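Appendix B, Record 12. Input sequence as logged:
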Amino acid sequence: MENINKPKEEVKNEEKPQLSRFKKKEEYPEIEKKEEPLTKREKELLQRIERLEAVANKAGLSKFDTMHAEKKEKVVNLNMIDGKVIISWNNMPKNRVEKSPKTGHWEEEQFVEVVYEDGETETMPYVVFVRRYSHLKAKVKKEIVNRALNKEKFGRYSFEVETEDGKEYKLGSKFVN
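Logged structural output:
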């Protein structure tokens, strides 16, 4: 407030406070900047920026995502009965379902022939088959598209699969769930 009434020249000539109490730039030690590894959040942000720079529309974004997506391994369920893997089953040798004229109830006489991994076959009532089987998970190692001749017998695809215990099987898509 005291400089307000003074002429401009006097204010310029006035002594300025000494800044000697402050350290000079040379007196400070230099600190080296260390490059720290990126955090998970920073990596995600960099990836988002890369995605946005690579695309300009939704179609491009979808294409980028499919090209950079992690490949998931296919897992199928194999059917098992009494610890044996079912490789295939044949058409029902006996398939009779009708309404009884005496009782008015539906009567079923259905049998299915099951082929196990060791080549053994077993014919059993369809109801027993449906109630007794269990699933075993297996990773798909190879997927083969079947030609017209094999389509009816095995399904559209054939798979080479491997179970957790290391056993390998070849079977059609009709026989995996």
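Residues 87 and 152 are 16 Å apart (CA to CA).
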